[in-house]
Write a structure and sequence with these properties.
Largest sheet: 5 strands, parallel
Number of domains: 2
Number of helices: 9
Number of strands: 11
Strand order of the largest sheet: 2-1-3-4-5
Low-confidence stretches: 221-228, 233-240
Radius of gyration: 20 Å
CATH superfamily of the largest domain: Response regulator
Order of helices and strands: EHEHEHEHEHEEEEHHHEEH
CATH class of the largest domain: Alpha Beta
CATH architecture of the largest domain: 3-Layer(aba) Sandwich
Structural class: alpha/beta
């Protein structure tokens, strides 16, 4: 998952960057409204942390410009505790959630996890497909109940595919969402990471769709299809 942090306070920006990167995200940073608007309109972020009091262009105007340009990434706004009017303006401009300053970093992380899973259509913090369970709260992966140690890039790849289970994800899309803007991107490395993941997981989870990309099956849809197939209609028998 790739995030954008927009905060003009350099110390706070650094703290957010460190915490989010430590939680397994690829993170880009902006320090003013003009840079933020440009990045938000040109890069495919999965979520954005946006301060409202920015130099050059305020956060609400930036958010309005993103939404007018059709950018739908979830946005978590940062606002001063006593300025409730900023919260209202932020929501009206298209924000999805807010955190009041000063805040606990764990709250920011939890709210971002919630935004990310809701935008991908998941109700809980744990993503499950077959024997594989990904706990987004602890950035931990279990296979049949046993923990599997992954590198940060392997975890990002698995997390993105499981967040988008049931949909074929191209290598180009993975490159855009797994690396920050300063990383030397190469789509061929995706194939390497997929190979490592398959070996570490030891189960048939990630399918290669030739010429298209990769697919992790949606466990809920698969289960519903299996039940529907077993029912076979009103009589409980399959048709000929």
């Amino acid at each position: 998952m790739r995030l954008l942090v927009v905060e003009d306070d350099k110390d706070l920006n650094r703290q957010l960057f460190t915490a989010l990167e430590g939680a397994g995200y690829a993170v880009d940073r902006a320090y003013d409204g003009e840079e933020a608007q440009f990045l938000g309109e040109t890069e495919p972020y999965d979520a954005i942390v946006l301060d409202l009091g920015l130099p050059k262009k305020d956060g609400v105007s930036v958010l309005e410009a993103w939404r007018a340009a059709g950018r739908s990434a979830p946005v978590l706004i940062l606002t001063a505790r006593d300025r409730w009017s900023d919260k209202v303006r932020g929501f009206d401009a298209g924000a999805d959630d807010y955190v009041a300053k000063p805040f606990h970093m764990e709250e920011v992380l939890a709210r971002l996890r919630a935004l990310l899973r809701r935008s991908a259509g998941h109700a809980t913090a744990e993503l499950v497909s077959g024997l594989v369970r990904l706990d987004t709260r602890a950035s931990r992966v279990l296979v049949d109940g046993n923990p599997v140690k992954l590198t940060s890039h392997e975890y990002r790849l698995l997390s993105y595919l499981m967040h988008h289970a049931g949909r074929v994800v191209s290598r180009a899309e993975l490159v855009e969402h797994l690396y920050d803007q300063d990383f030397d991107r190469d789509s061929n490395t995706i194939e390497v990471f997929v190979g490592r993941l398959r070996k570490k997981l030891g189960v048939d989870l990630i399918q290669t769709m030739r010429g298209l990309g990769y697919l992790v099956e949606n466990a809920e849809l698969s289960e519903q299809a299996a039940k529907a197939g077993a029912g076979g209609g009103p009589t409980g028998k399959r048709g000929a």
